[in-house]
Amino acid sequence: MSIEATLAEYCAVACAEAFRGDGEVLASAFGYIPTLGARLARATFEPDLLLSDGEAYLVANDLPLGGSDKVIEGWIPFRSVFDVVWSGRRHVMMGATQLDRFGNQNISALGQHEKPKVQLIGSRGAPGNTVNHATSYWVPNHSPRVFVDAVDFISGVGTNHGAADIKRIVTNLCSIDFVTADRSARLRSVHPFHSVDDVISNTGFDLVVENVTESRAPTDEELKLIREVLDPGGLRDTEIKS
Amino acid sequence: MTADKRVTLDEVVSSLSDGMTIGIGGWGSRRKPMSIVRAIARSSLKDLTVVSYGGPDVGLLCATGKVRHIVFGFVTLDSISIEPHFRAARQAGTVEVTEYDEGMFYLGLLAAAWRVPFLPTRAGLGSDIMQVNPSLRTIRSPYGPDELVAVPALTLDAAFVHMNRADTRGNAQFLGPDLYFDDVFLMAAKQRFVSTERVVETEDLLRQGPVQTLRINRSMVDGVVETPHGAHFTSCEPDYPRDEGFQREYAGSIGDKWPGFLARYVDVDETAYQAAVAQ
After folding, report:
1. Could you give the CA distance from residue B9 to residue B91 in angstroms, rounded to a whole number?
2. In chain A, which residue's Cα lies nearest the Cα of B74?
């Protein structure tokens, strides 16, 4: 037990755990902590993952966040990303402005779509991603504004709308999965520094809560990798409030 | 000798008319044909339908009142997540939209390029893309039980892309990491324009980059405009990166700051623009 691990490091490990068992697929992560998680997974228990630099290259080495000293093992321009998406050999970890209890995600607009109260980035590849391959989410600000009873717009489809496989939602408080009879959200583990009650009071729908564990601590090897190799600049700490 | 297809920015704009559907290449705030976008922004054109993997091209045309309709999967400045001028137009309700998954968008252009009425995909199924585009149809596979989205062909009246190099006949070359979908935009359009950093002799193209960079051939192009720094302020690797400082100025020029930006950077010709941003 590494008692000195920070919340950001627990979050990175929880993101890494989302990719466990994936094998030789493209892991596409958005945000510092998901990117760190995917790189940590490959550096430890999931060595066959493919990782891109978010531009056009597959990177073979353990690249630090913000690093540019790449060992390039392949070319993956945006058009090739669609090939991978539609082949199913991908696991994406996206952000979400809203999520509901079946993992339907909104990144399109708040309010009415014809004239939104708040225009967001747009659906991007979320509809195609979710219906074709494994999807997880990263929510750095777990709150009832994110976890809502019904999303204003379904960009990424949830388990009740034909999702291929919603694996995990990792937040600054906890880890959520969909391993329930009706494939609704279940509280899987709570990060230290927070309680089950914190999660429940910050979630706008009823989570399945049973046999909740504490989130796995980083191993000594993982902590060393995070701090010395994958994020020596500490960018992980800029993404969440500690 | 094949025709010299070089044209001016004014000639590009004068070949367009109100209400046209225009496609703009690049991706987000990357290798956008901004010199052509600027020329449209300061023209009298109106009621355009803009088809784009959207960046500041969409925002600038919204802010200058050129747009009636946007076909998009996202609009972003990349290093600034939300395009503020696009957001303002959407929240004011001054533009109509067709929102697609970004892969559906690709298939729509490809269908137009291939002259088929639609292409099938799973992307979009179950999502509200189907709800907000009631004209979208699904199709049952003739070979099995699969129900798929039939993405209709996105035929363009005109398309614009910005390339690193081109010759006078319209053979064009990308030297950065990604072609994006620029060839497909051109193939989906009736009038096809390439702006380029530099016009070079045909025999010099392969001195610039390997043969795999020659993805646009002259049968796909009607006009070539030489506009050095023409993608500014978006990135045009390896010629120049995104001008992040200028992009922040653009993104911050909303509300009462917009008229100043407009006077300095939009209501001026390309030469004056390039002089202003060089300061």
Report:
1. 32
2. A122
Chain A residues with CB under 8 Å of B127 CB are 123, 126-127, 130-131, 154-157, 161
Q: What angle do CA B256, B262, B268 make, to 5 degrees?
A: 160
CB contact under 8 A, A86 and B121: yes
Whether A126 sits inside 8 A of B82 (CB atoms) is: no
Which residues in chain B have their CB less than 8 angstroms from residue A128's CB?
A: 101-104, 121-124
pLDDT score at A2: 47
User: Residue B201: is it exposed, middle or buried by C-beta count within 10 angstroms (0-12/13-18/19+)?
Assistant: exposed
pLDDT of residue A16: 98
Q: What is the average per-residue pLDDT within B67-74?
A: 98
pLDDT at res. A242 = 64
With a threshold of 0.90, tell me whether the complex ipTM lies above it: yes
Q: How far apart are CA A148 and CA B267, in angstroms?
A: 45
Which of A58, A100, A121 would you mutate first to test chain B, the one with the most B CBs within 10 A? A121
* Tokens describing residue B277: 């941003």
Per the listing, tokens 């994936």 go with A22
Which chain A residues in 105-124 lie under 8 Å from chain B, judged by CB atoms?
108-109, 113-124
Q: What angle do CA B259, B264, B265 make, to 5 degrees?
A: 100
Structure tokens at B150: 């039939």
Q: And the tokens for A230?
A: 């994958």
Q: How far is CA A236 from the centre of its chain?
A: 14
**Residues in CB range of B136: below 8 A, 6 or more apart:** B124, B129, B130, B149, B150, B151, B152
- Per-residue pLDDT, averaged over B253-259, amounts to 96
Confidence of residue A241 (pLDDT cuts 50, 70, 90): confident
CA A175, distance to chain mean position in Å, is: 10
CA distance A44 to A40: 6
Classify the phi-psi angles of B36: left when phi > 0, otherwise alpha if psi is within -120 to 50, otherwise beta.
alpha
Q: Does the pTM of the predicted model rise above 0.95?
A: yes
Cα–Cα dist A84/A89, whole Å: 6
- Residue B279 pLDDT: 82
Reading the block at residue A237, the tokens are: 């700490």
